[in-house]
Design goal:
The chain has helices at residues 15-27, 30-65, 74-97, 108-118, 131-137, 139-156, 181-195, 224-234, 250-267, 307-316, 320-340, 353-356, 361-372, 385-390, 392-404, 421-426, 436-439, 446-462, 474-482, 499-507, 509-516, 519-525, and strands at 121-128, 162-167, 170-175, 199-201, 204-206, 210-217, 273-282, 287-299, 303-305, 346-350, 379-384, 408-414, 431-434, 465-469, 487-489. By secondary structure, the chain is an alpha/beta fold. The strands form 3 sheets. Strands 7-8-10-11-12-13-14-15 form an 8-stranded mixed beta barrel, surrounded by 5 helices. A 4-stranded antiparallel beta sheet has the order 2-3-1-6, with helices on both faces. Strands 4-5 form a two-stranded antiparallel ribbon. Helix 19 links the parallel strand 14 and strand 15 (487-489). The radius of gyration is 36 Å and the shape is elongated.
């Protein structure tokens, strides 16, 4: 044992007693001073002993966490143990930063490292497309659904497969060089299919919208960061690719989407938008009762851009509020012109999910009606079923405020969302529209017939109107009329028309009568 390990010979074990004896001697206080010095010596020795034991216990605890690499003095062991803990804490903090706080999955940094180490491979991407919308009103629900989806993925892939959480609702799956490209594609398709199943959260059933993408990563043609960017960019592909693997260049799509977004920001100022109006037909009264206003974009270079192409870009760029307000103003102004021309018509305007999140929507509607001096009963707001039912309490409050103005509310695409009967009982609306998916070939498809009959019965039970949209054949019209459906919309009557052509269609009552009394209809309804 070295002298430094003896508590009596180590400060304060030595310095304090010596200092006390020195003070006593200098003061020449004889026995009194010597006694005082002795007391100080004992007190200092006891203090040093207690202090030393506390240090030894602390060193022992540290060394249980960080075993010493050799024999050394107590101060050296203490310093070494503290250094080891500091390194461990730093490493733990770094690891914590590389794990997502919600899912616990590795973040993008470990993914990029693995890709760089492996070289070639396939990078798959999975997007829970509803994540941000659910997070807007129930972050806990969004995270629980996301965790359920992660658990499904982890059950489907081998332990060595790296699954990474690269962005809010976006996951990445790395298939290294040991996995063939076609096998990776098949695996991604299977994962996309499995993730589309219902997620049960308490009493709720959520049908997640899943989008799957993949890119081939080659080390000689780009960095891992570029491949990850390509996967994330691929999620901006047009709708209709859910649960499928994209087979087109995501970078080109991202470039086109960005250019389209820039042009959209100028479209209102350059008067490139227009509204077309598709007639809403009251078959029992034999008349056109109104129109749905549908936005159209005439691009100066691209020509007519389909709504399915630019509407998702518009909503993703945060332009839905601005464009939606323009559409509401233009539709109300047109409806006022109809009333002034002696036409008793209403107009239906679509409202996006982003507009519904704005608590000032009823105020904007009221101001628009007041600006054009249009009676509120001439306006109808249409919301898709999934948007309307997304946040039941907020929707209920908003519906009440809108309907208090006298404005009617219609639920579009009914039957395609995830509404429950409790939601239907809570929300107050005036019309439901049977989605065209169930109207197409309803005269021959027994599954569609059952669904349409149920929706019509629901409308009668709730005392609200039911409109069948997407009617394109007389046989469909005849079958629906036989089931008691009164209101219709679709190309059998007319496509969406420019404002002037729509007015001409309304005034041509003979053409509508011919459509309602087609020979096949008379035969089928007889």
């Amino acid at each position: 044992m070295q002298w430094r390990d003896l508590p009596l010979l180590r400060p304060p074990g030595v310095l304090v007693p010596l200092a006390a004896l020195a003070v006593a001697g200098l003061a020449d206080r004889g026995i009194t001073g010597a006694a005082a010095a002795a007391v100080l010596v004992v007190a200092a020795w006891v203090s040093a002993l207690i202090h030393d034991r506390a240090i030894r216990r602390s060193v022992a605890r540290i060394e249980r966490l960080q075993p010493p690499t050799g024999s050394a003095s107590l101060p050296v062991r203490l310093a070494s143990g503290i250094d080891g803990l500091e390194h461990a804490i730093a490493a733990g903090a770094e690891r914590a930063q590389q794990r997502h706080p919600v899912t616990g999955l590795p973040t993008r940094e470990p993914l990029l490292v693995r890709m760089a180490e492996d070289g070639d491979g396939v990078l798959g991407g999975v997007a829970f497309a509803d994540y941000d919308r659910l997070s807007a009103f129930d972050p806990g629900l969004a995270n629980r659904v996301l965790l359920a989806l992660v658990a499904r993925i982890l059950r489907m892939v081998p332990d060595e497969r790296l699954v990474s959480h690269v962005d809010r609702g976006h996951l990445a799956i790395w298939f290294g060089p040991d996995t063939a490209a076609d096998a990776a594609t098949a695996a991604m398709r299977a994962i996309g299919y499995a993730l589309g199943d219902v997620v049960v959260d308490g009493a709720r059933e959520i049908v997640p919208e899943i989008v799957v993408r993949e890119v081939r990563h080659r080390s000689e043609s780009g960095s891992p960061q570029v491949s990850l960017f390509r996967v994330l960019a691929a999620f901006s592909l047009p709708e209709g690719a859910s649960a499928t693997v994209a087979a087109i260049d995501p970078v080109a799509v991202a470039r086109e989407r960005f250019a389209l977004e820039q042009d959209l920001r100028q479209a209102i100022a350059h008067r490139q938008f227009a509204l077309h109006y598709q007639p809403l037909v009251d078959a029992r009264a034999g008349r056109v009762s109104g129109a749905e206003a549908l936005i159209r974009w005439r691009h100066p270079v691209l020509g007519a851009v389909p709504p399915a192409r630019f509407v998702p870009v518009m909503e993703g760029a945060g332009l839905a509020d601005e464009v939606g307000l323009w559409a509401l103003n233009a539709a109300v102004r047109e409806a006022k012109g109809w009333r002034q021309a002696g036409l008793d018509l209403s107009v239906a305007v679509n409202v996006s999910g982003r507009q519904l999140e704005d608590e000032t929507l009823p105020v904007l509607v009221a101001r628009t009606l007041e600006r054009h001096a249009l009676d509120a009963t001439a306006l109808e707001l249409e919301l898709t079923e999934s948007v309307a039912m997304g946040d039941g309490e907020r929707s209920a409050r908003l519906f009440e405020r809108v309907r208090a103005l006298g404005v009617r509310i219609a639920i579009d695409d009914f039957g395609t969302g995830y509404s429950s009967f409790s939601s239907l009982r809570t929300l107050t609306f005036d019309k439901i529209k049977i989605d065209r998916e169930f109207v197409t070939a309803v005269d021959t498809r027994r599954d569609s017939q059952a669904i349409c009959q149920s929706i019509l019965a629901l409308g009668r039970g709730l005392g609200i109107r039911v409109l069948a949209e997407g009617v394109e054949r007389p046989e469909e019209l005849a079958w629906l009329r036989r089931q008691g459906c009164r209101y219709f919309q679709g190309f059998w009557f007319s496509p969406p028309l420019p404002a002037a052509d729509f007015v001409d269609f309304v005034r041509d009552t003979g053409a509508l009568a011919d459509r309602l009394a087609a020979p096949s209809i008379e035969r089928l309804t007889a």
